[in-house]
Amino acid sequence: MWLGTIAAFLFCSVLLPVEVRQRPPVDPAVKKDGWWIRLNTESKAESITWIFSEPEKKEKEPVTLTWQRSIDPNNFDLPESVRLVDSLHFSVTAKPPTTPAAFCVFHAAQGVMLVEFSGSEKKTLNSRAREKGCTP
Questions:
Q1: Is the pTM of this model over 0.85?
Q2: What is the CA angle 12-70-73, rounded to 5?
Q3: Alpha-carbon distances of 12 from 3, 7, 18, 64, 81, rounded to whole Å
Q4: CA distance 77 to 64
Q5: 3-state secondary structure of 119
Q6: How far apart are CA 76 and CA 68, in angstroms?
Q7: Higher-pLDDT residue of 15, 26
Q8: Each residue of 103-115: pLDDT tens digit?
Q9: CB-based contact 83:37 (threshold 8 Å)
Q10: Could you state, in order of their start, the residue ranges of all structural domains in the chain?
Q11: Is pLDDT above 80 for 23?
């Protein structure tokens, strides 16, 4: 019985592709030296996944980041590869899909956009934009 379980695990580990997603940083000290996110604590989503891309650089791989309510901090820097860009392009998906989710996107010490959605959204943000509803 154990041999069958081990064989199935090895088969799945070797032959099935696995998507690797970055986790938000565990360190609660947010650098705030570029793009960062603060989740609205009243959001009901259990997980939120962002896919960041740079449309003008098609050869660059998108960066995927997944936040989980029970594991990750509510404030976190974006990965360095997208944290310092001028314009931020992303699609975001909340799970469960019918659950409302909300977060503020910041660039350094400035709130740029409050994003409220259910399901999925696509956004393009400029670091010079301002959102009065998002204060660091």
A1: no
A2: 110
A3: 14, 9, 9, 22, 30
A4: 13
A5: coil
A6: 12
A7: 26
A8: 999 999 999 999 9
A9: no
A10: 20-126
A11: no
